[in-house]
Amino acid sequence: FPYTTLFRSQKNSITGNNGTSGLGRKIAAIAIGVVVVLVLAIVIGIRVYYNGHWYSNTKIGDKDVSGMTLSEATKTMKEVYSSYELQIKGRNDGSLTINGDDIDYNVDVETAVKKAYEKQHSKFSFSKLFKNNDTKIEPKVSFDENKVDSILKSASIVKGDSNYKIVAPVDAKAAYSKKKNCYQVVKENPGNTLDNDNFSEEVKKALDNGETSMDISDSEKYPDVYVKPEITSDDKEIKKEVNACNAVALRWVTWTIHKGVQESATPEDISKWITYNNGKVVLDNQAMRDWMEKLCLKYKTLGGTRKFKSHTGKMIKLSGGDYGWQLDYEKMCAQLKDSINKKMSKKLQRAYIKNNDEESQKAVTVTNKPEWLGTAYRYDPENKMNDWNKNSYIEADLGAQMVYVFKNGKIIYSCPTISGKPVPGRKTTTGMFFIKDHARHRVLRGDNYATPVANWVRITWTGTGFHQAEWQPWGSWSPSLYKVRGSHGCLNLSPSSAASIYELTSYKQMVFMHY
């Protein structure tokens, strides 16, 4: 056959449809075969490689041994344990490092690493190559326990030192909060006091396991290493105590002492008088009385020192007597106690705890009217002794045996007097007093006398006063007559003088009596 015919025939055979499909399948089959061979080679290669190496993502402790051979990993771990130390982290930045050399620490690393290696390679799985393959070796460990005990006993984390203070655990408790103005549960303080037995046990366990670090401040992992508070904030009895104390303390006991001047026993004050015992709140009665005594003394001017202008024009200092402000201590104590014992709405107290504002405070306020034993002409917050009328007062100069009545700052009347005889039981008292009573007729009584008098003006509650004494020798009066003709303490006046004093003096007017 001609070559052209042969060529044409073969060309047709190659380019024909059936010819083309057959060739493609052959090429595809060859490609697949090549891929399969390559994959198998890779698989076999990986399998062979990891048969003699640690899997990827493998750590022994803190050391990454991924891809190492058994001997390499063994060498690495031997180096770790040759310089072994256990670092212990405690509460409040406490720390302790135990060096292996100090406790004769010895580890059979080779056997432990081989055992872990065999365990990892006991069954091959490609999925292991993509997982975390961290492993833990359990080498046979030995150390001198007595040396460990000695180190622990002297460690600062156990006994403390100048740089690390040991703090005992503190129980949770109910206490008054100045910030919240109410009782709250004060959370327990765990402190940093170690339970030596449990601590020693955990340390030796870590040494046995070949651990290089332990954080004993992790209470979940080491729950019994530190001494624990006996009472925690979850204690039901503490919550009961908080509620009981708040029921008593949360109130303001208030008095308006003077216009614009208010005093209160606050919840904080009351909290200082409270103790809780066997489910009940007990008030310290003496502490309450001490508080009230300070309040009464704060406004007491009775008996204090005052200056006044004498008939001579000179300023005289005088103290004593019964003039001035004085709260009735016993009645005020009773008011305080009754106000604290008064039942208070729990709803209002809860609102006070929640809002702690002026409105809620007002809702838990118990208002009282102050009880006074003695009052004065005025109240001066800047000068407590400025409590009398400096323009209108009486001066009894017992040395001169004269009485002077001041009005508008000037003497409007004066007269002689005969005061008490200067012997025990009869001498006229000195000090600052106030006019307490006026009576046209009165009978003065003593141990051995009963004397009717006219124009009686009481000065003291014990019986001293101005009154008419017609039996005295007024025609021969002298400043020294009282020494022989003195009264039983009253200020005797002539009939005319007694009438004038009666008319010119008024209730609560200041009387200065001095020598």
Architecture overview:
- This protein is of the alpha+beta class and 515 residues long.
- The protein has 15 helices and 27 strands.
- Strands 21-20-19-27-22 form a five-stranded mixed β-sheet, covered by helices on one side. A four-stranded mixed β-sheet has the order 23-24-25-26, with helices on one face. A three-stranded mixed β-sheet has the order 4-3-9, with helices on one face.
- α3 (70-82) runs antiparallel to α4 and α10 crosses α11 (329-341).
- The longest helix is centred in the first third of the chain and has 34 residues, at 17-50.
- Mean pLDDT is 92; it is low at 1-16.
Briefly say what this structure is:
The chain contains 15 helices and 27 strands.
Estimated helix fraction: 25-40%
Strand order of the largest sheet: 21-20-19-27-22
Give the number of helices. Answer: 15
Percent of residues in beta strands? Answer: 15-25%
Uncertain segments: 1-16
Describe how the helices and strands are arranged:
Blueprint: H1 3-15, H2 17-50, E1 59-60, E2 63-64, H3 70-82, E3 85-89, E4 95-99, E5 106-108, H4 109-120, E6 140-142, H5 145-154, H6 156-159, E7 173-177, E8 182-186, H7 196-208, E9 213-215, H8 236-249, E10 252-258, E11 261-265, H9 267-271, E12 274-277, E13 280-283, H10 285-298, E14 306-309, E15 315-318, E16 326-327, H11 329-341, H12 346-355, H13 358-363, E17 365-368, E18 372-374, E19 393-397, E20 402-407, E21 410-416, E22 431-434, E23 437-445, E24 450-458, E25 465-468, H14 482-485, E26 491-493, H15 495-504, E27 510-514
Parallel strand pairs: 3-9, 10-17, 19-27, 25-26
Antiparallel strand pairs: 1-2, 3-4, 5-6, 7-8, 10-11, 12-13, 14-15, 16-18, 19-20, 20-21, 22-27, 23-24, 24-25
